[in-house]
Amino acid sequence: MKPVKIIISILAILLVVSCETRYRMVTTLERNGKVHREVYAFEKGLGFSARDTSKNQFLFHLSPDWKVTCSDTVIKYNFFGDESEYKIKISKDANSIEQYSLEIQYDEDMQPYAAPEESLVKKFRWFYTHYSFKTVYKKLKYDAPVSIDDYLTKKEQILWTQGNMSDLKVMNGTEMNDYLDKINDDFLEWCSRNFFEISFESIKKLTTKYDLDTAKEHIYKKIRKEKIEAFDIEPETVCTFLDSFYVTIYFSNLYKTNKETIDKDFQRLTSISIFDMGNTISYELVIQGKLIKTNAPIVASDTLIWKVNGMRLLFEDYTLTAEYRMANIWAFIFAGLIIIIAIGSFILLRIRNR
Q1: What DSSP assignment string belongs to 308-337?
Q2: Pair 129, 324: CB distance under 8 Å
């Protein structure tokens, strides 16, 4: 797929994603330690996945141990408030959840979604066995001249992209609105500054006729004063403002002469693939036993559900966690037998003493 500007991609995710591939991944942790996984694919805007197994519609290469199942009827599913339809699913059994990420094969640009780091740690505690589940989706790979840390704190970054609401619990609606508006403004300022830096440098490296560094901050302030949208701050736009500052047409001519080179370089430095930003996973974990704690935003009976997409991976790794326990029936039986034997021995001892 063609690369698209990172900022445009981000803003599109914030508003409406018109072409979005949805994946529903259901992982069932069995009591015996084995794992069963099913994955469904659906592309919004194109309807349910066609019954065509010759085309791989999933996140990774399908090895022979993945079973492909085609349904004659449409499987409907509520995908975070929006109905999705599936006809194809893939499934695989494994001896451990780690086995999936270790054995999976994928293209490099699919890595953030295809191969999260999954683990399940088991600790025996006599009457109960405690399980600690953890899955880490890695931050998207991209370069930005200006760090988001200059504009948002770590807490604000996580809130904006992953939805940590802990700091909002003491706020009312008006206070939340003001707080989120400020984060939004700072986020867009970060977008604008990065587009400007990349555009400015693409022009600067083509000429030594002017000392552009002396005009840099003035040009940026002028662009922001004119309320130019972040995704409109391109090399051609910067050339227009440079012409105005130096009272010349030199920069516009420079852009026209080198348009193909400048645009290609700009595209490369401001892009993340559509795959990275236009896909969403419903990660569903089915557990056995009693849930102790989790950071899953949705808990439905024995199923924990997380939403994973590019926006959540923009600034930090996205970590899914859960802890649960299962009773060791044999331990209760064994303990019961010991108690019965102890009581019986005590009674027999009393009888003999009499």
Answers
A1: EEGGGGSSS-EEEEEEEEEE-HHHHHHHHH
A2: no
Name the nearest CA neighbour of 63 among 18, 117, 105, 116. 105
How distant is the alpha carbon of residue 297 from its chain centre? 14
Q: Which of 259, 184, 210 is nearest to 219 (CA)?
A: 210
Q: Regarding predicted confidence, which is higher, 235 or 58?
A: 235
Contact (Cβ atoms closer than 8 angstroms) between residue 266 and residue 235: yes
H or E stretch at 164? none
Q: At a CB cut-off of 8 Å and minimum separation 6, what does 257 contact?
A: none
Rg of the chain, C-alpha, whole Å: 28
Which pair of tokens denotes residue 343?
A: 């009581």
Backbone angles phi, psi at 244, to 5 degrees: -65, -40
Of 50, 21, 91, 101, the C-alpha closest to 282 is 21
| Residue pair 98/35 in contact by the 8 Å Cβ criterion | no
The two structure tokens encoding residue 21: 């591939």
Phi, then psi, of 20 in degrees rounded to 5: -130, 130
For residue 328, CA distances in Å to 31, 49, 123 come to 11, 43, 12
* pTM of the predicted protein model: 0.82
Cα 114 to Cα 63: distance, rounded to the nearest angstrom: 14
Residues 62-94 have pLDDT tens digits of 888 999 988 888 888 888 888 888 888 899 999
DSSP for residue 107: -
Residue 100 in contact with residue 37, Cβ under 8 Å?
yes
> C-alpha angle 266/267/272, rounded to 5°?
130
Give tens-digit pLDDT for 161-200. 998 887 788 899 999 999 999 999 999 999 999 999 999 9
Tokens of 85: 């339809």
Distance CA 118, CA 111 (A): 13
| Edge-to-edge strand list for the sheet holding 117-125 | 117-125, 128-137, 318-327, 290-294
